[in-house]
Amino acid sequence: MIRKLFIIPALILGLMIGGLTPAPARANHEISRAILGAAAVGLLIKSYEDKRSREKARARAAAQAASRANHSHTRIPAGAARAGRDDPRQCLRQRWTPDGWVSYKDQKCLRELDRRRQQTHDRAVRHVPRSREKPRECLRKRWTNSGWEEFWSTSCLRDHGYRG
Known about the structure:
Shape: rod-shaped
Oligomer: single chain
Number of helices: 5
Low-confidence stretches: none
Number of domains: 2
Mean pLDDT: 74
Structural class: alpha+beta
Order of helices and strands: HHEEHHEEH
Distance between the termini: 48 Å
Largest sheet: 4 strands, antiparallel
Helix content: 40-55%
């Protein structure tokens, strides 16, 4: 990197000095000097623009990294975490409460997940014995802008032996 920044100006300087030295054949000397000067100026401008673009890219990458660091707690939309797979972990949500962040599984998302599984005739879900269903005491309700919403409490499900 440093070599490149040093070699380009040294090459330009050498070309400029070489164009100024007396030559035995003076024909077209002025034209060659103008061409070399234009090439030298072009190379200087190009190296300056390359440096600016690298600095902009570095600043943009730093800003994106800072943005990701500041927004690591944001909610992941349903299906984004494991697109194309029916995984209950994609229904995991987090919500801020006065006691801190609370994780829960969205009831609407889980119902949609079960509906999709039944449509694809997934035997493992269609033939679940009633003893393996989720305990009703883990079903919670909360008020949202669109009305009451039901969800499964992850800590309660974990206490009852469910993983995910």
